[in-house]
């Protein structure tokens, strides 16, 4: 059942002069009022898809349906979408308040009204005390909040975010993930967020859409995509999985389901990485397959292993997940 807040791509293709295809006949329904992450490696088509939804990239073929109408031929300001860019693109000579209110000024809104609306948006992103500052007087995280407020001031149906956390340090990135999710829930609008970070997508998304080679490889709830990858590419890209070729076929096996045991497949330890709560052990098994085992820290150091040690790897057959391709 479609709602007026859904956004649907219908056979959307982006082809550049010379024949290069960035997005290849993608059809997908993004449910309204949800947080969606487009995930994939560089060059997979995720940013081109986002820019076509925004209207910053032309559609070669296909339709983009928002609110029951095809917006593919409309300029960005007429679509009901807003975009937050990776670079933030704040005007250095304007105050924070004037940056946020800029689009309303372009629409001819009275000064008092646009400044009041800007104040509301700055309150939403916890930047109300910084309205008189210039962008150069803000940290990277504060600039990001201002860019977010500026994108939201137009009351879009869909907010599009192009790798918005990539410029932040790891601690701030985790904090801002929580803030983005809070704001999306508070506003009740659709966020479509491009990232190449699997942890970011899993932490944020109601739906993860994994792209590969200009197409959608798999889409679904974050937990489903992680636990039930359909293809070897998705299993490897999401991380935390081994892709094993066994006599009965190809399987994904979560690394935390692999155990070091007295009996099991013979292997030789290739690397050991201490990662705080656990230790990542990579071992080379028969058929020159590298298998990753994630072992709880206390358990590993009760019987530590070193590169070159012979080990036996074990897992339950029920932990093997068959891959379709």
UniProtKB/TrEMBL annotation:
Reply yes or no: does the keyword Ribosomal protein apply: no
Start and end residues of each ABC transporter domain: 7-238
Q: Which InterPro entries match?
A: AAA+_ATPase, ABC_SmlMolc_Importer, ABC_transporter-like_ATP-bd, ABC_transporter-like_CS, Mo/tungstate-bd_C_term_dom, P-loop_NTPase, Transp-assoc_OB_typ2
Q: Name the UniProt key words of this record, in alphabetical order.
A: ATP-binding, Nucleotide-binding, Transport
A GO cellular component annotation here is: ATP-binding cassette (ABC) transporter complex
Q: One of this protein's Pfam families, by short name?
A: TOBE_2
Question: This protein's superkingdom?
Answer: Bacteria
| Entry annotated with the keyword Nucleotide-binding | yes
GO-annotated biological processes: quaternary ammonium group transport
List the molecular function annotations (GO) for this entry. ATP binding; ATP hydrolysis activity; transmembrane transporter activity
What is this protein identified as? ABC transporter ATP-binding protein
